[in-house]
Amino acid sequence: MMADETTEEKLAEKPEAKAAERRQPGRTVASRRLALTLIAGLLAVLGLAIVAQVNTRNTDEDLQGARQEDLVRILGDLDSRQERLRSELAALEDSKRQLTSGAQGKEAALAAARSRADELGILAGTLPATGTGLEIEFRAGTQPVTASTVLDAVEELRGAGAEAMQIGGATGGTVRIVAQTYFVDDGAGIIVDGVKLGAPFTVSVIGDPQTMRAALNIPGGVVDMVRRVDGTVVIRQPGEVRVTSLRQAVSAKYARPVS
Q1: Any idea what the Cα angle at residue 100 is, between residues 94 and 104, rounded to 5°?
Q2: What predicted TM-score, i.e. pTM, was given to this entire model?
Q3: How many Å apart are CA 185 and CA 151, to the nearest integer?
Q4: How far apart are the C-alpha atoms of 156 and 215, rounded to whole Å?
Q5: pLDDT tens readout for residues 83-142
Q6: Check: CATH 3.30.70.1880 for 130-243?
């Protein structure tokens, strides 16, 4: 008799359990969705980790395949850039101390404003500049030196801390290189900001000579590209580099300062 009662109780409980499950279908679906979302998130994180590991492994393999002198050159380039950034940071901190020094703050602020105006004039190409740097001559080989090669050189020099640049040709004069400068192929020559220059081309650049030289000579860089077509890149370091070509100041048409 007891066994029958137990069986009847179990049979009575099953419909109630099923009814409880039917009353909470939303929670079950939500739980499944949450679980799927967590799994997808974990897979995404795992994928990013794998990609990062592959990229790091590829970079390590590239460095392992480089020659010892190339590794020394790359390390020297990184050290020079780090030292340059430290010097800039120290100069900015010194300017901050002068501007907050009380009575001398007004004079320091005025001097800083004038210095900043000169720096912006050099960057915009509206003021001449002089200082240490390099003169880089590009001579054609079996193929002409292309506009893209010159642009790559300009970008490498900018990345190495170049502060002022101009380019000249055997014909066509010189053109100041600024942020808006463009380069276009034109037969054996190139067009720079609408001015046609004939080969060979010479870029005069002001900046740290050692860092810029290392940037140009990095494996697979500009010098290697020119040599592959039997061209020549001659890098000279005169006592003083003068960048005298100027550009007309252009007023912004759409941009306005944020007040």
Answers
A1: 95
A2: 0.60
A3: 11
A4: 6
A5: 878 887 877 777 677 666 665 666 767 777 787 788 888 988 999 999 999 999 999 989
A6: yes
